[in-house]
Amino acid sequence: MSFLQSIKNTVRSRSIHVSYVNVGSCNGCDIEVLAMLAPRYDIEQYGIYVHNNPREADILLVTGAFTPQWEDKLKSIWDKIPEPKAAIAIGNCPISGCVFNRRGSFVDPPVAKHIPIAAEVPGCPPRPTEILNAVLSLAPVVFKDYEEKQQ
Amino acid sequence: MKKTVDVSLPIGPLHPCFKEPARIRCETKGERVISAEMDLGYVKKGIERIMRGRPWQEVMFLAERVCGICSVIHNMVCIETLEKLSGIDVPERAAYLRVIVNELDRIQSHLLANFSYCYTIEHETLSMYLLNLRETAMDMLELITGARVTCAYMVPGGVRFDLRDEDRLTLEEALDHMEKELDRYVGMFKNGPLIAQRSKGVGIISRDDVIEAHGVGPVARASGIPESDRRLEHPTYRKLGFTPLSYEDGDNYARIMIRFDEVYQSIGLIRRCLENMVPGPIRGGGTVTAGEATHAGEAPRGELTYYVKTDEYGRIIDIAIRTPSIMNIESCAHYMLEGVSSAADITSTFISADPCIACAER
Question: N or C: which end of chain B has fewer CB within 10 A?
């Protein structure tokens, strides 16, 4: 491992920026993502910073069963995120559509059809600790030795 | 007169301040907003359409997934409509337990709304305090119902679980804790000079404008319409001697303060429920029959109405939901945002109306 890569690994291990996008959820998962900010779960102690700017993000949290309005928008948000990047599907909706995936509804799950999903957290909604655990366990897999893996 | 528009300023659909996707199109002169329009439709799922033709046992779970923040009141109003159309009575203890869970849900929703506002005006300390206090309310919801967000606690003719005596003590302790902490945070909000500058006199909506825009819930009560509270017509709340609160100013400050005051009020209502509650059955039973009914309840954001029509097997033939957020978004876009003096105040005014896009679009 080169010296530069080891510096990058150290920096990236405690500086993960998270952005979240709601593509048609009922808000339940979104408020559980927000609850991660609370001092009880305290996501920032792991160096994870939640803010909603895709251009600065490393990890995209996707909630909701894909609605038609997001057909082109989610792809463009995904393209705006700089490499290395990963997307996590939060809740049942982006995985299977949950209760909304019935005949007559407007949703088009799973989200994995539209952007590559690296991890999935099932639950309706999942607990904040489970979301936190998913972000923490995915980050080293994606970001460690990223440049060397590319070669 | 011809309007001079300098900038057309779009905000959203993905914005750091918004929890949900919505788009505000503002026409501004410099930074002063001349007019604003809302673009909705980002989370339209068609829930009412998939509810039709299904038995009430399925519709009940779909109803509480209309909105994740105020899922308890959706459950409550849906079940109360079914009870109304088939004439099912609720045991007294179950009626009090429903009020307890509903008020806990209101507490967490109001605290979340105030968290969002404080986060938007960049007072991160206070917002984190409020978010942590909300976790106490979520714990109590989980203690009583078994789930944090989608509880499905109420069923026709009663509730699912009883409140055990040891859980009652935990609940009373949590209420004391919440009240004590909230005193501190409300003091911080009231006495913070910068908060007052960012909130007082911003986003004013007058009483007449609220009536014209059909504003409901805290938005209406902050502009001096206390009678807009639907809890006045609920039999259990009447038994508890509920009186609604109101503020006169109609600005951002009043809208946040009315939510803080309602959290105190909800704590008081839960205490009164616990005092009045006597041991007894929690499920009376009953069958959902054919009928047609409209019923309204007070969601944390305002009046929520369900119209339900069923056949003799309890299947839903027709259902229509009217959620409060759509009226509040309307009054926000067309009255509050008009004349707001900076781009930073646009988001804070929008958040102070506490719009719930998932509710509004379904």
Answer: N
